Amino acid sequence: MKILEETKLDYSDVLIRPKRSVLESRKDVDLNRTFKFKNGNIWTGVPIAAANMDTTGTIAMGRALSRHNMITCLSKHGHDPADWESLANEESNIALSFGIKDREMLINDAFAKEFAYHWDFFCLDVANGYTQKFVDFVREVKERWPEKIIIAGNVVTAEMTEALLLAGADIIKIGIGPGSVCTTRKIAGVGYPQLSAVIECADAAHGLGGFIMADGGCQSPGDVAKAFGAGADFVMLGGMLAGHEECAGELVTDDSGASHKVFYGMSSDTAMDKHSGGVATYKASEGKTVKVPYRGPVDDTIQQILGGVRSACTYTGARSIKQLPKCTTFVRVNRQLNTVFGDS
Ligand code: 5GP
Questions:
Q1: Ligand 1: distance of its center to the CA of 266 in Å?
Q2: Given the CA of residue 51, which atom of ligand 1 is nearest to it?
Q3: Cα separation, 152 vs 168, whole angstroms
Q4: For residue 173, which atom of ligand 1 is closest to its CA?
Q5: Along the 344 residues of the chain, how does pLDDT read in single tens digits?
Q6: Looking at 56, 161, 184, 301, which residue is catalytic?
Q7: Which of these, 90, 95, 217, 302, could form a disulfide with 194 (CB 3.0-4.6 Å)?
Q8: 123 is catalytic
């Protein structure tokens, strides 16, 4: 047994210190960033992604976020390839998501010919990215699809970020335990404070010419800014995009007249009942099911998120998201701020 004594940090443990800046307005900040990947692929957009959860990774979300040049990682479940095809004729920043169970389909030519050629991004997603089986899966998919931009995860440490990049992934998804409907920290006692995970994995990835996507734990636009300040190239959001018109699930109105949508973790009882016929006897569910107040179309929320990140750039003198880490000094705070999305 070993104990790492150094304290690791979450988003709520820090604030971004303001700095003198020559930027005059938030309008001076450009949130679009151009990425050049090792296979020569170039993508320009706002590097914020909707999580590939049943509720947020929907085609409607894909359409809404694409209007802001943002990405949507479609849920692995519940999308008929025919739906994907309907999106293929539109300008959309969509990632198709796959788990190890989809290996046969991914390597299969019929799938290739009919659908997959439309999409730039593949998101290879497992709860635990630390297995050799997953590394082999990433390698196989990259060999079969060298022209795709491969997002793979999740992991939280530098050595595994490097292993997945060396296996062929382009963007490593970082985060084990921080998700708003994740209970892995409680059930398994496993996890890593997200801000430190982002800082350490970004350093490892950038050393190899790769990128990272900070996934989970953002509760407010300020957390998104902190993730970029910590070195994240992309940020993935679940809970912050939940409860909107574009999310899957019925809109339910209770007796008091308040409306909500259900939001659940992909390892929750709800998800396992839906997709795997219940929680297997050797497993415990590692996700929650919550009711989220209905928030209407996602556009207003997007506006707040992008406005928040722009504001962070203005406060620190960064003209772009790419410059934000260079301009960021974090200060430790001595209390949990418990910022709630929507608070001033
Ligand atoms: P959020 O933005 O809601 O804080 O986090 C979203 C992320 O939580 C997802 O992208 C995914 O990585 C993670 N996640 C989603 N469902 C579950 C779950 O049931 N269990 C765990 N451990 N993580 C989940």
A1: 7
A2: 10
A3: 9
A4: 12
A5: 999 999 999 999 999 999 998 888 788 899 999 999 999 999 999 999 999 999 999 999 999 999 999 999 999 886 676 777 777 667 679 999 999 998 888 887 777 666 666 788 999 999 999 999 999 999 999 999 999 999 999 999 999 999 999 999 999 999 999 999 999 999 999 999 999 999 999 999 999 999 999 999 999 999 999 999 999 999 999 999 999 999 999 899 989 999 999 999 999 999 998 888 877 777 788 999 999 999 999 999 999 999 999 999 999 999 999 999 999 999 999 865 555 444 43
A6: 184
A7: 217
A8: no
Integer Cα distance of 103 and 142 in angstroms = 12
* Residues flanking ligand 1, CB < 6 Å: 51, 53, 127, 154, 175, 179-182, 184, 215-218, 236-240, 265-268, 286-287
Q: How far apart are the first and last CA of the chain?
A: 44
327 catalytic? Reply is no
Q: For residue 344, how many other CB atoms are within 10 A of its CB?
A: 2
What distance in Å separates the CA atoms of residue 224 and residue 271, rounded to the nearest whole number?
26
What gap in Å lies between CA 153 and CA 224, rounded to an integer?
Answer: 19
User: Residue 81 contacts by C-beta under 8 Å, 6 or more apart in sequence?
Assistant: 111, 114, 115
299: closest CA among 343, 241, 235? 241
- Distance from chain centroid for Cα 32: 17
**Which of 232, 245, 315 lies closest to 48 in space, CA to CA?**
232
What is the 20 CA–ligand 1 centroid distance (Å)?
Answer: 36
What is the best residue among 266, 288, 298, 305 to mutate for testing ligand 1's pocket, by most ligand atoms within 8 Å of CB?
266
134 φ, ψ to 5°?
Answer: -70, -40
